[in-house]
Specification:
By secondary structure, the protein is of the alpha/beta class. The chain folds into 2 domains: 151 residues, D-Maltodextrin-Binding Protein, domain 2, CATH 3.40.190.150; 126 residues, Periplasmic binding protein-like II (D-Maltodextrin-Binding Protein, domain 2). The chain is 42% helix and 15% strand. The chain contains 13 helices and 10 strands.
Length: 336
């Protein structure tokens, strides 16, 4: 049979299609043979670092291609150094993940020195945990309600490490906007504060519920008030934002407590392709349900709870789009 030019052209297209389809079928997964580096913006050994290393251990099995996942610490300026590195230096290829400090939104809204990033422009994986904040007092003290604390005859003494610490900021806002009779006493560390509580040098402290839970369960301390995040054991407590009808006070308290929902932020460089982001988001959602990871995190008194990017961005948009007068007032009490 004589082959016409049209026949040859059609045959060529068919062969090209078959070859291309075959190549696509044989294409390796994006992360196969690759190395993902999680950059932790905090020192080794702390909560951010331990969680990142636990995630790194279990993440490969939730990503097609099972990449190697390493952890690198890049501490400094409450993780601003790591945040700037992610924003300006790391490639937008999904191979570098930032595990950043939950206080970074405060740095941006207050225009702190060293901020060279916009949290709204990162490609957000989400948050790997929430972090409930509570104020707890020694169990034998008579202050059981917010009203008791407001009507205390003498100031209730609370240990804190300074104006940049949640343990100091939380009660300072309660004192200012809810009228609680509180006084802060400065210590060098959370461990020193807890020792002071047990020695009855101070009446209590504010901190992450995960830190205070062992003392509450032992009956040494009693939680009285919480921030935005609730969980078993503190779900009966009043939330700070609900204890005022004043619009400005409610806004300031909401700005502060909202970031509890972004307890452990995980982001990658702006411009990372959407298909890569889907892989990473699905993987983080998967590890939050992984029984082996849950067992590992439980041993370290941590809980992985995935917060999707849209929820993180909702909190950030609220915080970062307040009018100047509100931000100025917020900055009187929140330092970074």
């Amino acid at each position: 049979m004589k082959k016409t030019p049209l026949f040859c052209l059609i045959t060529s297209f068919v062969l090209l299609f078959c070859i291309t389809a075959g190549d696509l079928a044989l294409a390796a997964p994006y992360y196969e043979g690759k190395v993902i580096t999680i950059i932790v913006g905090n020192e080794p050994g702390g909560g951010y670092d331990r969680l990142a290393r636990t995630i790194a251990k279990h993440l490969p099995k939730h990503i097609l291609g099972k990449p190697t996942v390493l952890v690198q610490n890049m501490p400094g300026a409450s993780s601003m150094i790591a945040a700037n590195h992610l924003y300006h230096i790391a490639k937008p290829d999904g191979m570098t993940i930032g595990a950043l400090n939950r206080g970074l939104p405060f740095a941006q809204v207050l225009k702190a020195d060293g901020v060279r990033f916009d949290l709204l422009k990162y490609a957000w994986i989400g948050s790997a945990a929430v972090e409930a904040t509570v104020l707890a007092l020694r169990a034998e003290l008579p202050f059981k309600t917010v009203e008791d604390m407001r009507n205390a005859k003498t100031p209730i003494m609370l240990g804190a490490t300074g104006p940049t610490d949640t343990g100091g900021q939380f009660p300072l806002l309660l004192k200012e906007y809810l009228g609680l009779n509180l006084k802060l006493v400065n210590y060098t560390s959370g461990a020193d504060i807890q020792l002071a509580v047990e020695r009855k040098e101070v009446d209590g402290r504010a901190a992450a519920y995960s830190s205070l839970k062992p003392y509450i369960e032992r009956g040494l301390m009693r939680p009285v008030i919480r921030g935005r995040v609730s969980e078993a054991g503190i779900d009966h407590l009043p939330m700070n934002e609900d204890l005022t009808t004043d619009k400005r006070a409610k806004t300031i308290l909401s700005m502060f407590s909202g970031v509890e929902l972004i307890g452990r932020p995980y982001v990658v460089t702006p411009g990372t392709p959407p298909d890569v982001m889907k892989i990473l988001r699905d993987a983080f959602a998967g590890i939050a349900k992984d029984p082996e990871l849950k067992e590992d995190s439980k041993k370290q008194r941590m809980e992985v709870r995935y917060v999707p990017p849209e929820e993180c961005l909702k909190v950030l948009n609220y915080l970062l789009n307040q009018p100047d007068d509100v931000v100025k007032e917020f900055g009187k009490y929140i330092k970074f």
